[in-house]
């Protein structure tokens, strides 16, 4: 008996393209792109010789084995469900976030003058004189330390729940959004700026102790408490800037701390805000009292940043610890026997009221020309800071500190190396990890050093004596770097930073006189410019003033 092999019918596509021909396509699939596989399936065969019945059974078995999520079918597997869209599943992936409860939980510090000492209290403050609306209204509100980095990309991290961060300032119902800038747009900005002009210098500067450069993992040195005063007054409270403003020395006035946040904005994750006031043809960039400018973040850019907890490794505790470490380290590396350089007295120090000695700090007021057209005059006056001189008084340096708390804890970084064991032999890997996890903080330090005209940056590596003790620390090493080279190593574009600054200035210049607030969205890569009432922060100041005037109960 002979058997004849009969070929099954083959639908030939006469136009030669992939997929069924238009003549053989069912009417329900007309004008729909051909998509025979699900997005998560790999193309393993160029032709399937199974019959439709076999294919249907095979698809059913495969779906049972793979357990397709909530009945989602393969793309194009059903005539009635093109592209496998499931409405109810899409709805389940959507949720609303209520910000009303967080707005009422904002911390306040009132109208306090920025002042830092090295004690265990970490950041202290001293009440300044009561001021009028213009300069005084800027130092209200508080820093919400709960806000820490949201979900990041990265292998294995896409399914983790995203964190909801708090805004650094409560957005008032009468605030009006004027402009919105997304980070991709900011990254495309660029502007070249010439060398600045030095206008004035004030403060007292001392030499750097070179003995600290010999510290390594075999020659450690304990971090010591330094009871020295360091100021961080906002722009409008600076008496020298007030004088330069009256002399029409510039169009825009700021501090290096505020300007560095703006120039490094696309790297930021946590929320921040800058209060901007236009007075006539002049613009002032200010901070509010207790704003994030005065408290250092820790691993803000890490894939999994520190948790929002109240323990010693929580985000808020680590920020205060980092601020405390940075202040004490900056003062400890000073050679107190070196000759002090004081071109002009410290503009914020009051010898009649202060008891602690001053920390080594030189304030340099520098003017940058941001003009674009030849007939344009747009000068930016910035108060910058340097921490010491090296060798001779003209060789200026800045001093900063990185801190290690516990490499095994959340937020310490992926596969973080123990500094005490590996800093001498694997410093490159440790530096790379810090550049990744603290990208915005290190970028700001590099920009601040560049603005100040510092020749060198000194970066200290500070580790806890015991991972469970946040009060005692050890210096395990120090690194030197040129600010511009360090910025280049981190892919920090100074021209991009100047482009961002000029763009924000142009935005404000288009507005009438008044007060504005630039806010980095807490959960999106975008900054917004708000128009706010002149008394936007006066209510918080009055509440804080009443609170401080109330007598304490007798114990």
UniProtKB/TrEMBL annotation:
Domain writeup: The RNA gate region regulates mRNA cap recognition to prevent promiscuous mRNA-binding before assembly of eif3d into the full eukaryotic translation initiation factor 3 (eIF-3) complex.
A Pfam family hit: eIF-3_zeta
Location of the protein in the cell:
Cytoplasm
The answer to whether UniProt assigns keyword Protein biosynthesis to this entry is yes
Q: How does it assemble?
A: Component of the eukaryotic translation initiation factor 3 (eIF-3) complex.
Question: In its UniProt record, which GO terms are filed under biological process?
Answer: cap-dependent translational initiation; formation of cytoplasmic translation initiation complex
Per the record, GO CC terms?
eukaryotic 43S preinitiation complex; eukaryotic 48S preinitiation complex; eukaryotic translation initiation factor 3 complex
Source organism superkingdom: Eukaryota
According to the UniProt record, where is the region RNA gate?
292-306
Q: What does this protein do?
A: mRNA cap-binding component of the eukaryotic translation initiation factor 3 (eIF-3) complex, which is involved in protein synthesis of a specialized repertoire of mRNAs and, together with other initiation factors, stimulates binding of mRNA and methionyl-tRNAi to the 40S ribosome. The eIF-3 complex specifically targets and initiates translation of a subset of mRNAs involved in cell proliferation. In the eIF-3 complex, eif3d specifically recognizes and binds the 7-methylguanosine cap of a subset of mRNAs.
Give the lineage. Eukaryota, Fungi, Dikarya, Basidiomycota, Agaricomycotina
Q: Where is this region: Disordered?
A: 11-31, 48-80, 100-167
HAMAP family from the entry? Answer: eIF3d (MF_03003)
Protein known as:
Eukaryotic translation initiation factor 3 subunit D
**Which stretches does UniProt call biased (Gly residues)?**
108-121, 147-157
Q: Name one GO molecular function term.
A: translation initiation factor activity
Q: Which family does it belong to?
A: Belongs to the eIF-3 subunit D family.
**Record keywords:** Cytoplasm, Initiation factor, Protein biosynthesis, RNA-binding
């Amino acid at each position: 008996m002979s058997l004849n092999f009969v070929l099954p019918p083959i639908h030939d596509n006469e136009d030669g393209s992939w997929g069924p021909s238009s003549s053989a396509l069912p009417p329900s699939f007309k004008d729909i792109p051909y998509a025979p596989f699900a997005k998560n399936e790999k193309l393993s065969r160029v032709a399937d010789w199974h019959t439709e019945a076999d294919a249907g059974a095979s698809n059913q078995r495969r779906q049972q084995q793979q357990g397709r999520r909530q009945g989602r079918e393969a793309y194009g597997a059903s005539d009635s469900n093109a592209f496998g869209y499931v409405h109810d599943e899409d709805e389940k992936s959507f949720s609303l976030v209520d910000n009303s409860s967080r707005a009422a939980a904002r911390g306040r510090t009132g109208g306090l003058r920025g002042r830092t000492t090295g004690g265990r209290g970490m950041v202290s403050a001293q009440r300044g004189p009561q001021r009028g609306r213009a300069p005084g209204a800027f130092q209200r509100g508080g820093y919400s330390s709960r806000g820490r980095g949201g979900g990041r990309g990265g292998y294995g991290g896409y399914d983790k729940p995203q964190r909801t961060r708090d805004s650094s300032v409560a957005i008032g119902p009468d605030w009006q959004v004027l402009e919105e800038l997304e980070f991709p747009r900011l990254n495309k900005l660029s502007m070249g700026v010439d060398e600045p002009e030095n206008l004035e210098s004030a403060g007292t500067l001392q030499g750097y102790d070179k003995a600290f450069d010999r510290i390594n993992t075999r020659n450690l040195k304990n971090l010591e408490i330094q009871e020295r005063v360091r100021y961080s007054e906002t722009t409008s409270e600076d008496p020298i800037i007030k004088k330069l403003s009256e002399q029409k020395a510039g169009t825009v006035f700021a501090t290096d701390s505020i300007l560095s946040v703006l120039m490094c904005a696309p790297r930021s994750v946590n929320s921040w805000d800058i209060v901007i006031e236009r007075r006539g043809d002049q613009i002032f960039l200010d901070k509010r009292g207790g704003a994030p400018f005065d408290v250092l973040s820790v691993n803000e850019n890490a894939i999994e940043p520190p948790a929002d907890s109240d323990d010693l490794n929580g985000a808020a505790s680590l920020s205060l610890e980092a601020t405390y470490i940075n202040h004490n380290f900056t003062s400890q590396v000073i050679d107190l026997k070196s000759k002090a350089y004081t071109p002009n007295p410290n503009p914020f120090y009051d010898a009649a009221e202060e008891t602690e000695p001053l920390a080594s700090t030189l304030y340099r007021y520098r003017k940058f020309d941001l003009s674009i057209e030849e007939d344009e005059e747009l000068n930016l006056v910035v108060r910058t800071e340097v921490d010491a001189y090296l060798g001779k008084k003209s060789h200026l340096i800045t001093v900063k500190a990185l801190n290690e708390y516990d490499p095994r804890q959340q937020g310490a970084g992926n596969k973080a190396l123990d500094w005490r064991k590996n800093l001498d032999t694997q410093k490159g890997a440790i530096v790379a990890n810090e550049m990744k996890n603290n990208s915005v903080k290190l970028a700001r330090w590099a920009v601040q050093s560049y603005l100040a005209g510092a020749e060198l940056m000194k970066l200290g590596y500070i580790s806890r004596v015991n991972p469970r003790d946040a009060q005692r620390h050890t210096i395990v090493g120090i690194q030197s770097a040129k600010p511009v080279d360090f910025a280049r190593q981190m892919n920090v574009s100074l021209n991009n930073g100047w482009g961002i600054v000029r763009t924000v200035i142009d935005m404000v210049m288009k507005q009438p006189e008044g007060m504005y607030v630039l806010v980095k969205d807490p959960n999106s890569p975008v900054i917004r410019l708000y128009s706010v009432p002149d008394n936007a922060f006066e209510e918080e100041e009055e509440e804080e003033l009443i609170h401080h005037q109330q007598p304490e109960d007798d114990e």
